[in-house]
Amino acid sequence: MRPHRYIDTDAGLREALDQLEGQPRYALDTEFHRERTYWPKAALLQLAWPGNLILVDPLEVDLAPLADLMNSESLAVLHAATQDLEVLELACGVAPRRLFDTQIAAGFLGMSTPSLAALHERELGVQLPKGNRLTDWLERPLRDAQLDYAAADVERLLEIHQLLTDQLNERGRLGWAQQEFDILLARDRGPRDPLEAWRKIKEARHLKGPALSIARSIAAWRERRAAEIDQPVRYVLSDIAIVAISQSAPNDGETLGKVRGVDRGMAKGALGEQILDAIRLGSDEGWRPPRPNRPKENGRDLRPAVALVAAWVNQLARDQALDPALLATRADVEALVRGDQDARLASGWRGEMAGEPITRLVAGDVALAFEDGNVVLEERSRNRIG
Questions:
Q1: What is the pTM for the complete model shown?
Q2: Which CATH number fits domain 5-186: 3.40.50.620, 3.40.50.720, 3.40.109.10, 3.30.420.10?
Q3: What's the CA gap between 61 and 129, in Å, rounded?
């Protein structure tokens, strides 16, 4: 294990950032929790660059000075960066300007959303420590074993970055990977849309008519309330309570307090009034979910074609040593077959690899066939049988 420094003062962070200034790249990781909060709470930040590895305590240190590093030309190397980017934006107001995500990069080399441990084993033959995977990073003081575990996540990440970059260059795929990094950086990481919160409630998906509209309204209220007080949504109101309220649609605090999962004291107070307002709003709106946009062309149902194309896309990804989920989802295939202008398979590296052949398939210029147990695309003979 490379020696690392634990930084728990603002002055210590400023000194480290001065040393890091001008470095072409750095490895970064965060440890965070959101089990007891709505917003992710940074608990530790790990930074590594040649000759240095630091662990920063966000409970003691203001991370705002990291903004200058994030805005610099230095390349940030992270693994599975999506949640880390959210944490960084909350902690210092900005995400890295330049990004290399080793998990995405590995997908272009045939690995299917690999863990950081799997990537270390494959590229370096190194096993990461496992004992502190489920640790509470908000506890203090952190033990030496915990700090070593956290440090290991960035200790050799720059080595992996170089190995993956070399392999991507060899296959001519570094540009493809950069497109994905840019898409990830451009993704909206703002607050979740409250009106979509009901979709995360399994039981609510089976509701119909007014009950579904009410569930959507209450779930939206719960989402906004949780964000406002920075508590998990389940602490505000349980999923069971939302479904039960939606089915019974109580119209006063007394009745609301008798619904399963609802605290009677809350039901009769200000929060109870807010829930009743949400019930009335959902009832009045009479919202209905939009019908699924089935892939059709000139009135023809193209779902059978989508199924075949999806099978071919999966086969193509395997043949090209790509993570199939990285190349296309079934929704991506549907969008292209349907002719959507913004279909992901219609542009960029996906368009080059799969978009054009699929377009020719839908147009009837090529056909799908089975060969040696695989789905293959071939020129169409136009000789019909039967």
A1: 0.89
A2: 3.30.420.10
A3: 27
